[in-house]
Amino acid sequence: RWIQLPSNPEGSRDAPLAFAFDIDGVLIRGSNVIPAAKRALSILEGNNPLKTKIPYILLTNGGGIGEAERCRRLSKELDFEIKETQYIQAHTILKIVVEKYADVPVLVLGGLNDDVRKVAQSYGFKRAYTPLDVKAWNPTYGPLTLLEAHNLTHIPSVWPFYDLTADELASTRPIDFSTTPIQAIFVFHDPRNWALDTQVICDVLQSGGIIGGPYRKPDIPIELVFCNPDLIWRADFERPRLGQGAFREAFQAVYKALTGAPYPHVQYGKPTTATYKFAEQVLRDRLAEMQGKPVKEMPQVYMVGDNPESDIAGANAAGWNSVLVQTGVYDPADGPPRHTPTHHAEDVEAAVRYAIEREI
Ligand code: G3P
Ligand code: MG
Q1: CB under 5 Å of ion ligand 2: residues
Q2: Separation of 307 CA from ligand 1 center, angstroms?
Q3: Is the ipTM of this complex over 0.85?
Q4: Which residue of 125, 188, 219, 345 could cross-link 110, Cys pair, CB 3.0 to 4.6 Å?
């Protein structure tokens, strides 16, 4: 039933369609690859009557480690090479805003230990500090801080304060936050220690960037940036889990209780227009890479996602086709989604077959 096109083993020649795949709940659930994922990618890598590669990118609100390392892990998990030119995670977009903050002290949050600092440094943030640096600067900083969440369980907990071991202190840069005004805050990935992270953001914003300083408004407003709005997402557990969007809601509720109003913030990640515009450019570049020539006209793009609030809402607003699958957040038993997809499919393989049959 598929029209026979000339085979083109080097890649797609003006493929009539392209895909953007969400990861959590579509290709992977927690530590497991969703069975339909490998079958879907096999179709796109050429295992179809068209005998040509059909372009695709991965577009996730996940993150926390560098793009190269995540692509290495995904290639191993999915059994197909995932190139960095095919991969966008929640904070990849920060690469286009880093210039303004490259040389000034910024706070970076999310994930575990030093991973996010390393990602920030790889983007060009030269003075990126974490809440653990603050804790190392002054161990009395967060009496309720649970360092276990940062895999630092070897630190003896002496109530009311944790003693950071010498190597923990050594692993964080000696920095005096009482003389280092933080000029922007970037929540790269989902925070693990909401108490410490909320405390640090509140201190920075209330004291004009000087942690522990008197409460005052800074001369230049401190930018607060979140990279993933997901209230919930789907991992191994039977029910969706709270995501970075839930941390943002919790932080803003605390900040409002402290100051009377939430703090104005910048939001990236699906479904924001900024992220989908960024993704469209990445897809355009990927098409050009595969076809060996600039793309004149974008093909039909199909976003395959599990979360109506991020994947379907964003794709619809971007003018892409959207396919909502049932292997992640969305459960048909909960009734119709708030954002109507172009098509419902059981899983990512069914979504790919639907789109190919529709376009070819
Ligand atoms: O932290 C990841 C989660 O928010 C969802 O990721 O791949 O479903 O966009 P994804
Ligand atoms: Mg998802």
Answers
A1: 22, 24-25, 306-307, 328
A2: 9
A3: yes
A4: 188
